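Quick one: structure tokens for this chain, please?
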Amino acid sequence: MAEQETPQQESAKGPPFYRNPQVLRPEAHGNLGVNGSKRTYRFAREAGFVAVNGAEFEMAAKHYPVIFTSGDDVVPIAVLGLGDKGNQYVNKKGVWERDHYIPEYVRRYPFIFVQTSDEGPEFALAVDMEDEVIGEHAEQPFFLNNQPTAFTNRALEFCKTFHQQHVATQNFVKFLQENDLLTERHAEYTTPQQETVPIANFTAVDEDKFNALSDAVFGEIRKRGYLRPICGHLSSLINFSRTYERAAGIRNQA
């Protein structure tokens, strides 16, 4: 398997998965909604990674490597596959492997916050109209009598919380950078034949620097609630072996 360079958060085409996000408006989408019984995760089958927020580190770290991208725009991601193998946790039917954490970025789809003003942080709820579960006379309509339904309001609250956590995660990453705690790392896999296979380059918290922090900085980490995501991130790195084995077919896949 070819060595993988971790990509940046988004390409110039926009956020992964989203092909045609439109701000929800009753005059344009009053007869549309979501057929939830048709939902699968086929849309995420090709995703070798997804962005995760700091609040998710502890749960995601139980199943996936949770790492940071390299470069100027550092983003934490959960690694779902390696090389060109795609997501190793979604089967051909679009079913996510049982008892494995599904990142909020995935659960948020097809909804998303979009910025509606170039002059300030104004956002509106949008939905990807290309999603296969969107349709007329749906199980979960977006609007009734030109007013958002409870379903739409729940989606709005989920996206609002996701955005707040995203901002908090940006501050978390900035703190790590300001305290020089991120370093380039290299993951490799040792086969039963004792052959070393390079699998990924990424950025991670430097454990030596972390252990050498002053009491004042460490106290600030505890005060800001950063200790648990840091520990979750570091403990998750062992999952690179599991992910490689799944991608290489060494273990049975879903």
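Residues 4-245 form one domain.
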